[in-house]
Design brief:
Elements lengths: L19 H10 L6 H10 L5 E4 L6 H12 L10 E4 L3 H14 L7 E4 L5 H10 L3 E4 L1 H10 L9 E4 L2 H7 L2 H10 L5 E5 L5 H10 L4 E4 L10 E7 L5 H12 L4 E4 L3 H12 L5 E4 L5 H12 L5 E4 L1 H4 L9 E4 L6 H8 L9 E7 L4 H11 L35 H10 L1
Parallel strand pairs: 1-6, 1-7, 2-4, 2-5, 3-4, 5-6, 8-13, 9-11, 9-12, 10-11, 12-13
Length: 415
């Protein structure tokens, strides 16, 4: 009795039943195993359902929303785009467009990025040549729609990438105007690290019975990222940064500051110490921002100083260290910041500079990520009272000054 032949068991991306040209593109890109968000979103999106994909940054969500559309694409009039992806920043729009080019199943599949800070005429010329996919920031997409330079009558696939960040920046009016102009019956995907009330309102208005795919861990942080904090007085932060860079010798480091002008000032300060650095923020001309990002991706810049608005447009696999020179005002931005390292499961280090009046902020971050962040010691930078054991009976009804180290936690968590 002969055994029945068995079908080969498919693994990796082959198990997702993508068409052969896409599998070839994935092979060329070196993609072998889908990430959790890719494994979860792609099969659902391939059915045509609306999808909300929730995952931390650095988990491969771009391919998760590009591949389902590419798998169903079968050509068409290049002057009538079929897909639209909206992203919060120019950098992220460029990054998504580059990924689309890399995964393109055919030379006839064209992607055009449109965003502010670049000459309108140049983008218009590319649009007039024809494309399948448009990737853009909401402001510039709406500008093209208003001028009639983008046709949306054949758009059947729409993605709101980093939806929570787009709303944080203030793009709600533009997004709503664009969504109202799009055809009925389209498929809509929303990718968002968090789902605040504003994001849910967009879902209720512009999505039809979406399936919620959530691969975010219960603990809002990447476990492989080694997190520490160092206490420091404000006027010694730059000195501490130079000490930490010398000690850590990062492969590449991303330094977060709160304001644009502080980024420029810090850049000038550390450049004087022969650190290969650059600063990037929204006030820089777009060509300059693109040159900086290209140099950072190529490893020519070792230290990049950035503001929060830039954080989700930076996806560089070589980042070994994140330094929070300034703690973020928005606690969840801490998670997005440190997610710039430890990409796709790699190890990473996140170091936060904490001033003597920021103990409560640090404790709130710890509550958010459900994890205690250990203190790091740098000689000469002890900006807090030496530790002494604090008994419960010794804690006043209201502490006027946060206490750091274990003492800081004792005060904050009891109060």
């Amino acid at each position: 009795m002969t055994a029945e032949p068995t079908e080969p068991v498919l693994s990796g991306f082959r198990s997702l039943n993508l068409m052969a040209p896409l599998n070839d593109a994935l092979d060329r890109a070196g993609y072998t195993e889908p990430s959790p968000i890719q494994s979860a979103v792609i099969p659902v999106a391939m059915t045509g359902k609306d999808v909300i994909g929730q995952a931390q940054t650095g988990t491969g969500k771009t391919a998760a929303f590009l591949l389902p559309f590419m798998n169903r694409w079968r050509g068409g009039n290049p002057l009538k785009p079929q897909a639209l992806v909206m992203a919060p920043t120019r950098e992220l729009a460029v990054q998504v467009a580059e990924e689309a080019e890399k995964l393109s199943p055919s030379r006839h599949f064209k992607t055009v990025p449109v965003y502010g800070g670049q000459r309108f005429a140049g983008q218009l010329a590319k649009l007039q040549q024809g494309c399948t996919l448009i990737v853009g920031t909401p402001g510039r997409v709406l500008d093209h729609l208003t001028r009639g330079t983008i046709s949306v009558e054949k758009i059947r696939y729409v993605v709101l990438d980093e939806a929570d960040r787009m709303l944080d920046i203030g793009f709600r009016p533009q997004i709503e105007k664009i969504m109202r102009k799009l055809p009925e019956g389209r498929q809509t995907l929303m990718m968002s690290a968090t789902l605040p009330a504003d994001v849910m309102k967009l879902k209720d208005r512009y999505m039809h019975d979406p399936e919620h795919v959530n691969v975010s861990p219960a603990v809002l942080t990447v476990e492989k990222i080694d997190q520490k904090y160092i206490t420091v007085d404000e006027d010694r932060k730059t000195e501490l940064l130079l000490k930490v860079l010398g000690r850590e010798k990062p492969r590449q480091c991303l330094v977060f500051v709160e304001r644009k002008r502080w980024a420029d000032r810090l850049y000038r300060s550390i450049k004087a110490h022969h650190v290969t650095a650059a600063a990037i923020h929204g006030d820089l001309p777009q060509p300059q921002r693109e040159r900086i990002m290209a140099a950072f991706r190529d490893g020519k810049i070792k230290v990049l100083i950035a503001t929060d608005v830039m954080s989700r447009g930076i996806d560089v696999s070589g980042i070994s260290h994140i330094i929070n020179y300034d703690l973020p005002n928005d606690l969840e931005s801490y998670v997005h910041r440190i997610g710039r390292t430890g990409r796709m499961g790699a190890d990473g280090m996140a170091i936060s500079f904490v001033m003597p009046d920021q103990g409560d902020v640090l404790t709130e971050i710890e509550h958010l990520i459900n994890r205690e962040i250990p203190v790091d010691r740098v000689e000469g930078f002890e900006a807090f009272t030496p530790r002494v054991k604090v008994n419960k009976s010794d804690v006043p009804a209201k502490a006027s000054t946060p206490v750091f180290g274990r003492n800081r936690r004792t005060y904050s968590k009891r109060l």
